[in-house]
Structure formats: structure tokens, C-alpha cells
């Protein structure tokens, strides 16, 4: 029980933002997502200064393909205490898909 609570607290920092550890896990796993050839890909070093800004279609692909796969995988590993955060991220992904339709 203590282990699940400590993992849950490590997700957000004191400001309520995703912790550096979780952001690094997301960045690492974004590079592991395999998409079909011909699909729009996101830059391999997303979130770094060298990559610059994402284009509109890259944002859409990030939120419609990459993040759903990555976030579900990470939050599944962290246990059931993060349902509210997972629901909020899922709602953000749904809003992006509606806006992109």
C-alpha cells in the first residue's frame, strides 16, 4: 500500500505539474511508439531545444496517436490511484481529436 501511495505522489510536483521523472518517461516512450510508414511522425527528440516547435499536424499526431499509447502505458504501471489524472489527460486527448476533425 505504501509503495502505491509513494508512486502516486511522484507523478506531480509541488505545483501540480507532471514531475520531471514522469516527463522523462513520456519522452523516452514517445520514441518507442511504432506508427505505420507514411504516417506523420513526431521529431525523435521532442521537448528539446534542438527540435524547435511542433507543426500543427505534429501536434495532432502527438495527441491522437503517440500520447494515448504512451500515457496509458505509464499510468498503468503506476497503479489505480491516478484515475483522476488519467481521466483529465484522456479528456484533453478527446478535445484535441474533436478540434482536429
Task: Annotate the secondary structure layout.
Blueprint: H1 2-9, H2 20-30, H3 56-78, H4 83-100
How would you describe the overall organization of this protein?
- The chain has 101 residues and is an all-alpha fold.
- It has one domain (2-100).
- It contains four helices and no strands.
- The protein has helices spanning 2-9, 20-30, 56-78, 83-100.
- It is globular.
- The protein starts with a helix and ends with a helix.
- Residues 1-8 have low confidence and may be disordered.
Q: Which geometry do the CA atoms define? A: globular
The total tally of domains equals 1
Main sheet specs: none
Q: How many β-strands, per DSSP? A: 0
Task: Give the helices and strands as they follow along the chain.
Answer: HHHH
Q: What is the tally of helical segments?
A: 4
Content-based structural category: mainly alpha
**What distance separates the N and C termini?**
42 Å
Average residue pLDDT = 79
Give the helix proportion (percent range).
55-70%
Rg, rounded, reads: 14 Å
Sequence stretches where pLDDT stays below 50 over 5 or more residues: 1-8
Strand content: under 5%
Transmembrane segments: 59-76
Keywords: Membrane, Transmembrane, Transmembrane helix
